[in-house]
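Data card: per-record layout.
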Amino acid sequence: MKQIRILILLLMTVLGAGCQDVSQSDSGMSSGKGKVVFSLSGEYGVFVKAETRANPPVSSLTFAISGTTTAGEEVNSQPLVVTTDGSSSFAYVDAGSYTITATYKPSAAGEGNGEICYQGSSTFSVTVGGTAPVSITLRPSNVKVSIVLDASLNTFYGTAKVSFTAPRSVEVASSSDVYLDAGTITYSLTATPLNNSGASAFSKSGCTFVGEAGKSYMISIGATSTGEIIFGVANTTSDEDVWEGEFS
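The structure for this 248-residue chain is written out next.
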């Protein structure tokens, strides 16, 4: 798979806070603020996943800034409130030097099999009356675990299941993908034999591996010719590979 990248071009337009014509043309700007305009039209901000996912609007992304204003005030993970008016999206910031972080985390990311999440950051400086173009490349920020139930199970087992207990609880009883937060991933395996198959019930708990953000892993489960369960975990993603879908 080709690398998936999200490229968002943020045109940071800082307007003079003390000019009368600015206050008249933009009544929403407070004293000492600049205006940040997000340019997301055309080729920017387009999201495609398996050709079925709708493009998320700017409102689906959350932004936060950290840094120092020109007045010397420290800013720590301050949410950036973005307003959308027609085709224009904008926010107000004090002049200063910052790191901006953009996050895409759908509401279903922590439910069921979860969903892909993205995050990225960039540094910028803005001065009163100046402009600062900023681009942010967002990459997958959680972990994808692909469950593969081999056809060899069908001869001996009616069901096979992977039960994750950390970083959250979710059960998977079919070949599918699960998205989890990065960190230590803990799971158990169970398999229920078919009647008269000669196989024994299988259960193994306390299985763990460390999942890195943006990496894809596979848990494969199969059976030997005598019905014994075999399973393994593999990291299937290289530095150049990412998950299906893209922000182009």
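Known properties of this structure: The two ends are 15 Å apart (CA to CA). The CA atoms of residues 105 and 117 lie 5 Å apart.

See the next section for split statistics.
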